[in-house]
Structure formats: structure tokens, C-alpha cells
Design goal:
- The protein is α/β, with parallel strands linked by helices.
- It folds into four domains: about 5-85, Gyrase A, domain 2; about 115-160 and about 255-365, Rossmann fold, CATH 3.40.50.620; about 165-245, no CATH class; about 385-555, Isoleucyl-tRNA Synthetase, Domain 1 (Orthogonal Bundle).
- Helix content is about 50%, strand content about 10%.
- It has a four-stranded antiparallel β-sheet.
- The protein binds arginine.
- Arginine binds near residues 118, 123, 158, 313 and 330.
- The site of arginine has 9 residues, from helix 11 and strand 10.
Length: about 575
């Protein structure tokens, strides 16, 4: 249900009827319950333009607002705010209508877009770190959300699989393969360290490594086979994490940096032909207005850089993938890089002006002491171990009930543990740094996945006691029911906002508020108690059902599972 756009239309019509110019009329959520459900705050601006008293304008508008349908009441407040209340009958009809709708009233966007989402992007020579975890979690939620709203999503996992370090790594892999059949890269970090030790220790090995750098670049078959073996094996580690996280990122979504290699000379050619780049001290550079340091696109020795590959990727995404919008879910520290490559790609016509380029930046993950997240002994956290720990801690948080089988208990702990890690990441405004705390993320109270999962399970327990079919209509009996029905109907507006701003926390905040409101409603408005009439019971059960449906659908978009019992 799109409430805001309907209200915008009603208010726009009222302005037109009052002979007031009506451009971009936007109604916002009321900041406090006593200000109604929504507010129109644009009168002051109009008053300035029209050189008229704001309260006079407001009263003119109010006179023309139709209060026979969706809106029940309008009031002027303060210097000229217009407070708007929605009609209870309207709310109950709309809410009753979506009871059996699998999308809980959420429609499809009017103009579906082709959207590329670049997320995860681990580097093959290294351990996947917490920054990649954040990118994976946020990116996957955006992909699910935008798909749910009817867009065509193309996931791109821009893995780092190219660079001089691969000479050393494949030389070492070759040695290992010779020693022991199929020595696996169990511990990438250790593997890298060992390779480095060999490199520093043996002149012959170091020479081989250097030789291999040149050979891979020239496409030598033997070296490429080894390189592919290395990439497949380290990608396997990442895919273990993806599968444990339950994210929808597959092998087919990988379009690695090396994919763009053959295009890189062409990128330089375009930049040169359009006089966008110049040679400076042997290197090919782009000087952008407003920044002192140039963007180097080709080094003096002919080598290309991270930025060159990203220009090729931008061109590919705009041209071959025909994207309308390209979202890069990458650490905020790369903001400068993206600003530069976006500007160059547009200037060079590699990306059309109508294509939206967005850096979906996120902050750094910190530990309790405010330092970047590390293990106790100072090493990098192994993500797979972090996720396993989440599940173990979830088991300790919830008690195993007697009626649970071991399997059921594992399933619940998985939903809660992984849900906690994901939700903690999604629920903060993404650009802030993020403080990692097991205690906070696995708490039953507060803005956590567990709180929502618990709320959902509580509603399921109501339905275990009441098995009969839901009949009749929702009847709004009091202020709390009014607010709850309205909150349920706000689901679509919430998802729309989150999809435009690429802010998953818009969804978590909403789901948290909805669950809190439901808990209050349930405390004050008993459902299955004696003395509650059948009509009231049916109405409240429907509100409970709708709340559960929204929580379930909302969490699904966040990639979090619900459970029937905790
Ligand atoms: N591999 C990069 C890193 O770890 C992230 C890649 C992001 N995507 C991109 N198109 N640059 O920093």
C-alpha cells in the first residue's frame, strides 16, 4: 500500500482547488502521535513565495482537503503545519484486504530498472575480512529488496584475482602440489606467509615468482592453469562463508578483475583520444577538476591499476549489461576512488548520463575498545569461525526446550545466530562505524533480530492456541489498533524508501517499531482471554496475523529466517 503518494495527491488536489501552485507536494510522517499520522510542512515555503500569511494559506488548503475517504481529520498547528489523521474505516478495509496477500500489500515498482549490485569483492590472495562481510550482508539485502520490488538485478562479485603477488603464490602452489598431492589452501593467510618466507629465503624461488608474473600476463598455459587452481581454491573459502550466511551469491555472479584485462588497453585509448588523460612522468594520468593528485590509469612500466579495471567494469556494466543503476557496496574509505572513476567514466562517455552510479558506502567494523576488529591474539578474524561462534552463542542464549529434537534446536540456533550477525550489521546507519558486540546482538530486548524473531514466535503461539479460520473484518477499536494497522500498511512506503536510499536500517527500524507496537497492543488488548467477543477476537487475530506476515517478509528481505518457537 502506497500511502504517501496517495496523500501527496490528495494534498496536491487541495492546493489546486484552492488556486495555490502545487509542485512537488510531499507529506511526511508525523513526528509525534498528537500531531496526527502525517504532516504537511510545506506551507511556510509557499507563504514566502506567495507573500501571504502561512496560517491563511493553511486554512485555505485545509478547507479543500477531502475528508470523506482516506483522511478523517485535518488540523492546522503552530505557524502553519497541517496535521493529517487517517480514517479508521479506510485503515480497516485496506488492512483486511491484504490478509491473504503473500506480498502483504507491497506492489511492484512502476518502472522496473536493471540494477547492477557490486558486492562482496574479496581478494583472492588474502583472507576474506570483516569489511567483505559487511559488503556481502548489505549488498545481498539490497539485491533481495530491489528484486522483491520488481527490478531486474545483476549481482557482480568483483573479486581481486590479478596482481604481481600471484606470481609468488602460484610458484609456491606449484611447489606444494609437487610435494603433496592436492595440498589444499586450508589457511590462506598461512599459505601467503609461507610463500613469502620462501620468496625471501630462496633466490631461485624469487626468480621463478618474478618469471611467473610475466608469464601469467603473457597468457602462458601452465601458469594460467596454476593460477586458476589457486583462484578456484580460494574462492571456495569465500563460498563456504556465503553458504553459511545464506546469501544469494553464486559462482555465476563472479566477474573477476581479470575478466577486464583484455579491455584495459582500449580504456587507455579512449581516455587518450578524448584528451582526458595525459602523460605525466611516464605515467598516464587523469587530472580531475578540484583534486590535486591525478588518477593514474597506467603506470610507466605499462601496468594498469585498480581504477583502470573499474573504468572497464563501468563501461561493461553500462554497455553490455545495460544497467540503469549501478550500486557499489564498498567500504567508505574507497569514497575518493569511486568519485573519481564515476566522474571519468561519464566524462569519457563510457557510461551514459542517465545511468545512476552510487557508492553504497559503509563504515568500519570495530571491537569494543574502538579498534578495527581483530582476534584476541591480534590476527585477522576468520569469518567462517566467526559465524560458527555466532551459532554456538545462539545455543547458549536460548534454552533447549524439551520438545525440541537436536535437529530442530540446531535449526533454531542457526536462524538466531546468523540472523544476529546480519541484523547487527544492517540495523546501524550504514556509513557509521560499527561496534561488534556479541552481547548486544544476541539480546532479547532492543533492536535485534532475536527480538523480532521472538515477537514472531509469540504470534505463532497465539495461533497454535487458536486454530480456526480467520473470518470477519478488522475493526479498529482504539488508538493502539489504529497505529498498528497504519504501521502494517506502511510496509511498502518503508521498502520504497530503503530501496531509493539504499538503507537497510530503514527496514530494521520499521520492523523493530512494528514489533514493539504489537507487544504493547497485545498487552493491552487481549486476544484469547475470556470475555473478548468473537468479533473483537477475530479482528485482533487478523492484526496479529498481519504483523507476523510483515515481520516474516521483512526479515526475509534482510536474509533472516523466522522460527515458530524459541
Ligand atoms: N576487492 C576490493 C577490496 O577488497 C573490493 C572490490 C569492490 N568493487 C569494485 N568494483 N571496486 O577492496
Amino acid at each position: 500500500m502506497k500511502i504517501k503518494s496517495q496523500l501527496n495527491q490528495i494534498v496536491t488536489q487541495a492546493l489546486l482547488d484552492a488556486d495555490i501552485p502545487a509542485n512537488d507536494i510531499i507529506v511526511s510522517d508525523a513526528t509525534r502521535p498528537e500531531f496526527g499520522d502525517y504532516q504537511f510542512n510545506g506551507v511556510m515555503k509557499l507563504a514566502k513565495v506567495l507573500k501571504k500569511n502561512p496560517r491563511a494559506i493553511a486554512s485555505d488548503i485545509v478547507k479543500h482537503i477531502n475528508t470523506t475517504g482516506m483522511i478523517s481529520k485535518v488540523e492546522i498547528a503552530g505557524p502553519g503545519f497541517i496535521n493529517i489523521w487517517l480514517n479508521n474505516d479506510w485503515l480497516s478495509t485496506e488492512a483486511t484486504n491484504i490478509l491473504n496477500d503473500s506480498r502483504v500489500g507491497v506492489g511492484i515498482v512502476e518502472k522496473p530498472q536493471k540494477i547492477v549490485i557490486d558486492y562482496s569483492g574479496p581478494n583472492m590472495a588474502k583472507q576474506m575480512h570483516v569489511g567483505h562481510l559487511r559488503s556481502t550482508i548489505i549488498g545481498d539485502t539490497l539485491a533481495t529488496l530491489l528484486t522483491f520490488l520488481g527490478n531486474d538485478i545483476i549481482r557482480q562479485n568483483h573479486i581481486g584475482d590479478w596482481g604481481t603477488q600471484f606470481g609468488m603464490l602460484i610458484a609456491y602452489l606449484e611447489e606444494q602440489n609437487a610435494d603433496t598431492e592436492h595440498q589444499n589452501l586450508k589457511d590462506l593467510e598461512q599459505f601467503y606467509k609461507n610463500a613469502k618466507i620462501r620468496f625471501d629465503q630462496s633466490e631461485a624461488f624469487a626468480n621463478k615468482a618474478r618469471e611467473y608474473v610475466v608469464k601469467i600476463q603473457q597468457g602462458d598455459a601452465h601458469c594460467l592453469t596454476l593460477w586458476k587452481q589457486f583462484i578456484e581454491s580460494s574462492l571456495g573459502h569465500c563460498e563456504e562463508v556465503y553458504s553459511k550466511l545464506g546469501v544469494n551469491l553464486t559462482h555465476d555472479d563472479v566477474r573477476a578483475e581479470s575478466f577486464y584485462n583484455s579491455e584495459l588497453p582500449n580504456i587507455i585509448k579512449i581516455l587518450k583520444d578524448k584528451n582526458i588523460s595525459t602523460n605525466s612522468n611516464g605515467a598516464e594520468c587523469v587530472f580531475l577538476e578540484g583534486s590535486d593528485a591525478p588518477v593514474i590509469v597506467q603506470k610507466g612500466d605499462g601496468g594498469f591499476l585498480y581504477a583502470t579495471t573499474d573504468l572497464a567494469a563501468l563501461k561493461f556494466r553500462a554497455t553490455n549489461l545495460e544497467a540503469d543503476r549501478i550500486c557499489y557496496v564498498v567500504d567508505a574509505r574507497q569514497a575518493g576512488h569511486f568519485k573519481q572513476v564515476f566522474a571519468i567514466s561519464k566524462q569519457a562517455g563510457m557510461v551514459g548520463n542517465d545511468v545512476n552510479l552510487e557508492h553504497i558506502a559503509f563504515g568500519t567494523m570495530m571491537d569494543k575498545s574502538g579498534k578495527p576488529f581483530k582476534t584476541r591474539d591480534g590476527g585477522t578474524i576468520k569469518l567462517i569461525e566467526l559465524l560458527d561462534e555466532a551459532i554456538i552463542r545462539a545455543k547458549a542464549t536460548i534454552e533447549k526446550r524439551e520438545d525440541y529434537s537436536e535437529e530442530k534446536f540446531n535449526e533454531i540456533a542457526y536462524a538466531i545466530g546468523i540472523g544476529a550477525v546480519k541484523y547487527a550489521d544492517l540495523s546501524i546507519s550504514r556509513e557509521s562505524n560499527y561496534l561488534f558486540s556479541w552481547e548486544k546482538m544476541l539480546s532479547f530486548d532492543g533492536n535485534t533480530a532475536l527480538y523480532l524473531q521472538y515477537g514472531y514466535a509469540r504470534i505463532q503461539s497465539i495461533f497454535r492456541k487458536h486454530n480456526a479460520k480467520l473470518t470477519g473484518n478488522i475493526v479498529i477499536g482504539d488508538e493502539l489498533e489504529h497505529r498498528l494497522a497504519l504501521m502494517i500498511l506502511k510496509f511498502e512506503d518503508t521498502l520504497t524508501k530503503a530501496s531509493i536510499e539504499a538503507t537497510p536500517h530503514t527496514i530494521t527500524t520499521y520492523l523493530y517499531d512494528l514489533t514493539t507496537l504489537f507487544m504493547r497492543f497485545y498487552e493491552q488488548n487481549p486476544i484469547l482471554k475470556e470475555g473478548v467477543t468473537e468479533d473483537v477476537k477475530m479482528s485482533r487475530l487478523q492484526l496479529a496475523q498481519l504483523t507476523a506476515n510483515v515481520i516474516e517478509q521483512g526479515l526475509e528481505i534482510l536474509g533472516i529466517k523466522v522460527v515458530d518457537k524459541i
